[in-house]
Amino acid sequence: MSGAVLVFHLVKTAGLLVNLVAFPTLRPVRTGGVRTSILVPARDEADRLRRTLPGLLAQPADEILVLDDGSRDGTAEVVAAHAARDARLRLVTGTPPPPGWVGKNWACHRLASEATGELLLFCDADVTLSPGALSAVWHEIQHQRAEVFSVFPRQLTMTFGERLLVPAIDEVLLGFLPHPLLDAPVPAAATANGQLLAFRRAAYDRMGGHAAVAGALVEDVVLARRARAHGLKLGLALGGNLITARMYGGYRDAVRGFGKSLHAGRRSWLIAVAVWQVVAHTLPWPAWLSGGRRAWRWAAVLGLGGRALTNAKTGRHGYPEAALAPLAAVAALPVYAVALRRTARWKGRRYP
């Protein structure tokens, strides 16, 4: 057991070391672009849009469309107030998703049908774009020759519970997807982050757009895989200082959100992953302290090192937060419990 855990950490550490150098981070540049549509699906996002709309409006986009997906909190009023001051911003009134559609996918499909841009940039309402973000995205799309492109924002975490769970996104990405694989004939090397996902219009139409993933709860990853299956060039980058997001408002919110995303997994697979995460990240510490094999010691140290390297690359809270790594797997157990339910609940909707 200790040997398997050590190999797991060695593989992850190798991936992290490669990505420290190879995984690009967005940086300010001065460059032109193509006609761009920023598309924002929004359901009960009034508070977030008050914070993030100014950043969207600071970008040199040709149009910014926000779809109000049946909100009950004044989302439409917030958008309308900003639209009165900037003609590029337009409110699109959503309709209930047809049978078989996930709400966000239907909203994105509607937005794409309204958009006129050559570049379609889907952006969640919780994402903050700093000045220069759109130019940096376009520059990196050109540099990577990407037809489908996704950014992993720097995740802002304000509570202890968020700091336990949210960094796992970056740690899995950087540990197990070396960026050079995106240029290799390895179709399985594909992922994306739906918080910011851009398509050249021709590529979006070729792969079927969101209609092709109508019922997918984890639509971003499925879209990335479809892109590679259709022979399209997939590009990825970290948001750095230019693109940030606060996904969840605390531990309970994070448990519900991650549980929804994992709901698409097989039950046996989810149970196996939950157990393995505890074995790989938490067990090495008591095993080492109780005089276990040397492999447990190395696994424990590499576990801390993996979180520290991830934080160094993404520019998060730095090295002290790495000390939470042994607790993260145990804190994530409720996430798997939510994912094992027969229905997923999100934004007031239920999905079987």
Would you kindly provide a written description of the structure presented here, covering whatever features stand out?
With 352 residues, the protein is of the alpha/beta class. Helix content is 47%, strand content 15%. The strands form 3 sheets. The chain has a 7-stranded mixed β-sheet with strand order 3-2-1-4-8-6-9, sandwiched between helices. Strands 5-10-7 form a 3-stranded mixed β-sheet. The chain is globular and about 65 Å long. GO terms for molecular function: glycosyltransferase activity. Keywords: Glycosyltransferase, Membrane, Transferase, Transmembrane, Transmembrane helix. This is Glycosyltransferase.
Q: Let me know the average pLDDT.
A: 93
What is the H/E string? HEHEHEHEEHEEHHEHHEEHHHHHHEE
CATH structural class of the largest domain: Alpha Beta
User: Which topology of the largest domain does CATH recognise?
Assistant: Spore Coat Polysaccharide Biosynthesis Protein SpsA, Chain A
Characterize the main sheet.
7 strands, mixed
Which blocks of ≥5 consecutive residues have pLDDT under 50?
A: none
Q: Could you tell me the radius of gyration in angstroms?
A: 20 Å
Give the helix tally: 15
Principal-axis shape: globular
Organism: Amycolatopsis pigmentata
InterPro entries: Glyco_trans_2-like, Nucleotide-diphossugar_trans
Protein name: Glycosyltransferase
Keywords: Glycosyltransferase, Membrane, Transferase, Transmembrane, Transmembrane helix
